[in-house]
Design goal:
Blueprint (H helix, E strand, L loop, with lengths): L3 E2 L16 H11 L17 H16 L3 E4 L5 E5 L9 E6 L12 H17 L7 E6 L12 H7 L4 H4 L10 H11 L14 E7 L4 H5 L3 E7 L1 E10 L3 E2 L11 H15 L7 E3 L3 E4 L5 E2 L2 E10 L2 H17 L5 E10 L2 E2 L2 H13 L4 E6 L5 H4 L5 E6 L15 H19 L3
Parallel strand pairs: 4-5, 4-6, 6-17, 7-16
Antiparallel strand pairs: 1-16, 2-3, 3-5, 7-15, 7-17, 8-13, 8-14, 9-12, 10-13, 11-13
Helix pairs in contact: 1-3, 1-12, 3-12, 8-9, 10-12
Amino acid sequence: MTQSRTSQSKTSQSRTSDAVDGQRLWDRHMALARFGARDDGGVDRPTLSGVESEARAQVIAWGRRIGLKPFTDGIANLFLRYEGRDPALPPVVAGSHIDSQPTGGKFDGVFGVLAALEAVEAMAARGARPLRPIEIVAWTNEEGSRFAPGMTGSDVFTGTKTLDQVLPIRDAQGVSIADAVKAILAGDQGVPLRPFGLPIAAYVEPHIEQASVLEAAGIPLGVVTGIQGTRRYRVTVTGEAAHAGTALRADRRDALMAAVRMIAAMDQAAMEPADTLLTVGLMQVTPNAPSVVPAEVFFSIDLRHPDNTIVDRVDGEIRRIVEAERGPCQVALKQIQHSPSLTFAPAIRDAIGKAAGALDIPAMDVYSAAGHDARQLHYVCPAGMIFVPCRGGISHNPAEWAEPAHLTAGTQVLADVLWDLANRA
């Protein structure tokens, strides 16, 4: 699946990458990790929350110090613009997200935003102005841990979904995206609101790998070839509460037993091929009392595979299984997301590989098993991703770790790629 990408070193005077400051990049990662810091060293920074608003203000402040102009939109995506010599040209965009999982780490998403900021600061330090504008972006709700599904900001920005579709979505406490966005925008200081539909020349997203392919190969940089397909569902099984000591098994409408049968059958249906990934990560039982037959079970399904035909086959099995195993209960299955597998633009992948080769940074092709906002951008402009290793492949975990040298290398490559793309007519 992977292919080595190395080349002879090329001499170049005053490259953008030469001005990348790895210590500043690292210090900003540690500074941003204080917003939502957990006692175990991790980060809990829910999307559209007060603590994310504080982190957002810090990113804006860093951008303003180097002359970047902030913008936002109706879903609270954050943009920092480095003006080009021709402001009328569509910008090159780079970034990721700053929201986290409840047990998140310091690097997931954040690296993409801070690497893009450092790349632009390197240009500013050289007094270099590209032909096209460059915009740094922090997308809203990439993680989907507070409001499901994730990638809300990039979905609305690209037109995959509309504001009317996402604003009514509520979190576990009943807060809607509409109310959360309103609070975030009210907290912004002097950040103009922009309409959707901004044309983009290209999009590059740096990210930690969230897998161990690069680490195992001893390679510090990955040129991401594509993202595997996924379907996500929510299932509600409705039965009837009953006394655990008196209700006969034959008379019960046990929602949990029905859900367990469904999940076990789905697990078997996803066994082949072996790299099919099926996860039930969320389950809510009502009334959740030890002496009461469960009346309702709500659970999630996350299905992934690089081959769209495999995902579609298991999708059919899931739909068959929920009906076949419900017994006397009622069942409602709702698919909340379908994202087919994709291959990133060869032009962006080539630009990343050439920039790494010119810097003598070993690189290899890798495939992304996780979803990213670059998936949505892929459909509206040439898009690609840069991966750097993370220790043990651990992510969405306080133990998530990336070496400073790898973060710096990825940012150096990004800086030269952005300079290249932003100077193309």
